[in-house]
Amino acid sequence: MEHALSPATLAELRRPRPYPAVSVLTPTHRREPDNSQDRVRLRNVVAEAKRRLEADPAVSRERRAEVARELDRAMAEVDLTHTEDGLVIFAAPGEHQVWSLARSVPERVVLSDTFLTRNLVSAQAADRPFWVLSVSADRVTLWSGGHDRVAEDHTGGFPLIRSRDNFDAERMERIGDLPSTFRDEGTRQFLREADTAMTEVLRQAPRPVYVTGDQAALSLFDDVGTVAKCAVHIRHGGLTHASPEAVWQAVRPVVAEQQRRTADTVAQELEAARGRRAFAAGLDEIWRSAREARVRLLAVEENYQVTVRDVGDHLEPAADGELDAREDVVDEIVEQCLETGADVRFVPDGSLRDAEGIAGVLRF
What we know:
Elements: H1 7-13, E1 21-27, H2 38-55, H3 61-77, E2 86-92, E3 95-101, E4 108-112, H4 118-127, E5 130-135, E6 139-145, E7 150-152, E8 160-161, H5 169-175, H6 178-181, H7 185-204, E9 209-213, H8 215-224, E10 232-235, H9 244-276, E11 279-281, H10 283-291, E12 295-301, E13 308-310, E14 315-317, E15 325-326, H11 329-339, E16 343-347, E17 358-362
Parallel strand pairs: 5-9, 9-10, 12-16
Antiparallel strand pairs: 1-2, 1-4, 2-3, 5-6, 6-7, 6-8, 11-17, 12-17, 13-14, 13-15
Helix pairs in contact: 2-3, 4-11, 10-11
């Protein structure tokens, strides 16, 4: 199952496809007893997708059978023991994908000529992804981080490994020869290469960066390139070969503190916008502003979700399952704001109580 949504992956998912491109969404649960019905619910929504294919006169018998096979293959890949809060299946002639999201999604089946990506985009923003780069004299490892985890990432050719006869950085650490290791020109060149590789990763997928390593490694990496100068340094060696859990435990307190600072900065920007009359609050006002591309900064509480009905010039509350109800309007707004260049920030629940869970700073 897929987790990481890069700009290149998103562009590929949005590519027009031969009709029908089927998107199947269903909420899932991480723990018992809530997850006991996930399998039945998933089976039912996939069956609904097949019924929709059967009933659509624009879908030929051959194409219907081909997409149904892709749905079956996708179902075989679903591992409900490791799901998060939402599951998305994409199926089209000759292809399928399964995405696990750390954000709930409405139960839905969509047949179109493109896949429905708004829920992936919103989940990615809510996950507040970041990079961790673990640096040593002989290995540089890249980790992709999110809400409650990190995983090793091989983007950009990572891990980078330096091979040299009789070179053992860990042994040098034990015998006290680490400072001379980081004065070595070969080490400097190796870390320059790591800096260049990471610069390209950030060009393709910009995120906050945390760099871990011994003080000597951090100092040299800062000296030879540009990435470390814009990153948060964590003085913690031995993580280039560590498990994802060990890396997460090392970076978690620092990440949490950075996110608290970000939330404080967002609150300050919203307050300043009030004085400039550039402040918008509440779902209806934010929805209209997003459609007009007026939102520069969007702040959303982490678990803010609401179901509404579009009645033309404004939104009205609606119950889940009602005809014409839009259960993921918050995800629509997030995607719309990101596409128009807004900075989207998710903040702790309760932070925007006066704004009913969603607020923004306007461009004009």
